[in-house]
Amino acid sequence: MLSKEQIAQRIARELKDGYYVNLGIGIPTLVANYVPEGMDVTLQSENGLLGMGPFPTEEEIDADLINAGKQTVTTLPGSVFFDSATSFAMIRSGRVDLTVLGAMEVNENGDIANWKIPGKMVKGMGGAMDLVASAQNIIVAMQHTNRAGASKLLKELSLPVTGLGCVKKVVTNLCVMDITERGFELRELAPGVRIDDVKAATEGKLIVEGDIQDIRF
Predict the structure, then answer these.
(1) For the chain, what is the domain count?
(2) Which of 14, 46, 156, 185 is catalytic?
């Protein structure tokens, strides 16, 4: 199975020159470490930073430079800082080409739940609902099952919905799947993972057709 770092590394292959990309809290923040060398990608953090770089080394840590998840980050030449109103104006006006989010659940229609578990205290929904409503493309980085081994790739969401029909691709510790009108379409497998493993871990409709390749890095 893939580690969190490998999930992020695979998602980094989806980046393209000229993209403006928002990275959500959790696994998605790791994508900043794997932007292909020479590629012109601008990473946005919704707390007010455009031009985010990879995570800092111990010598580079600046406690005043953080992402939306309160992790310390670096900045690249040309980076700019601004208030959250400006940040969300960028998001709501469709200027983000790709959003990478974590999720608690995704269903076969591309609906996502990633902000609240009933009965547990949360500070709020954050920017997730703006992002799923406005981004041109959404990729989810997540674990395929929960700690009890139950699938998180479902027929129907059981948790409060963040957005409907918005997720285009899911990268988990087991595989890469596109979400289409037919359901979850299996594209790539983590090294050592079998198709039967994915079938057993996926509650939603899974489409397996053609030659399924191993994930490359």
Answers:
(1) 1
(2) 46
